[in-house]
Write a structure and sequence with these properties.
252 residues; alpha/beta; 42% helix; globular; binds 2-phosphoglycolic acid
Length: 252
């Protein structure tokens, strides 16, 4: 197996007023003092906080990401943010194709692939999210769905450097439910095989994160599953204590 440096990324979703920057400061201060040697750490706050927190992050070793982007560089797209604007804040990554975007904004695989390409154009890493719904799982379609999503939302030119895959079963997001270790192992194994088949060595090295109800109490077990190269964390990334507790899975 390739030697992969894991990534623990926090997705703040539509949460975080200026008062929440105190939590980021706490995370940054702790990580500056006691760096996470075993994994990269990233926070993806809402756009409104990105610019303001870039400085705090600069010397903490924490990385900064955004949660979505438009496909164009600039233009008449009211309310949208381009990857170039995200890069301009000091952020280095952007999540694309999160299931909440797919659901709330009817985003399809093709658009997700275009967003990933746009992210690369601006020099950002694209964190491409995939995962089955509860209904699809019930019908035993998980592997089929995930395979189709990778095939259609991963653009040509993907490398271990410019792309991270996040497997997030939709039914596990924010629900407190997590798949069994065996199920995660099977899905991540299938994703790895597919990535290696399409991309060769780059696919062997590409990070595959698990996301969906990751907490300090289950992080160690989930992060030790084969082909799980870190986590995409929602709710538990909002509080420094919880997020640092998850990062601890890589400290001991
Ligand atoms: P959760 O969200 O950790 O709150 O389940 C994960 C995600 O949606 O990225």
């Amino acid at each position: 197996m390739a030697d992969i440096r894991p990534l623990v990324a926090g997705n703040w979703k539509m949460n975080g007023l200026r008062s929440a920057v105190a939590e980021l400061d706490k995370m940054a201060a702790t990580l500056k003092e006691n760096p996470s040697k075993g994994a990269d750490v990233m926070i993806c706050p809402p756009f409104t906080l990105l610019m303001g927190v870039a400085k705090t992050f600069a010397d903490s070793g924490m990385q900064l990401g955004a949660q979505d982007c438009h496909v164009n560089v600039s233009g008449a797209h009211t309310g949208d943010i381009s990857p170039e604007m995200i890069a301009d804040t000091g952020a280095t990554a952007v999540i694309v194709g999160h299931s909440e975007r797919r659901e709330d904004h009817a985003e399809k695989d093709k658009l997700v692939a275009q967003k990933a390409l746009a992210a690369w154009r601006a020099g950002l890493t694209a964190i491409i999210c995939i995962g089955e719904t509860e209904g699809q799982k019930r019908l035993d379609l998980t592997l089929k769905v995930v395979e189709r999503q990778i095939k259609n939302s991963l653009p040509e030119g993907a490398t271990a450097e410019n792309t991270v895959i996040a497997y997030e079963p939709v039914w596990a997001i924010g629900s407190g439910l997590v798949p069994t270790v065996q199920d995660i192992k099977d899905v991540h194994g299938a994703i790895r095989k597919q990535l290696a088949g399409i991309l060769g060595g780059e696919g062997e090295k590409m990070r595959i994160l698990y996301g969906g109800s990751v907490k300090p109490s289950n992080a160690k077990e989930l992060m030790s599953v084969d082909n799980v190269d870190g986590a995409l964390v929602g709710g538990a990334s909002l509080k420094a204590e919880d997020f640092l507790g998850i990062i601890d899975a890589y400290r001991s």
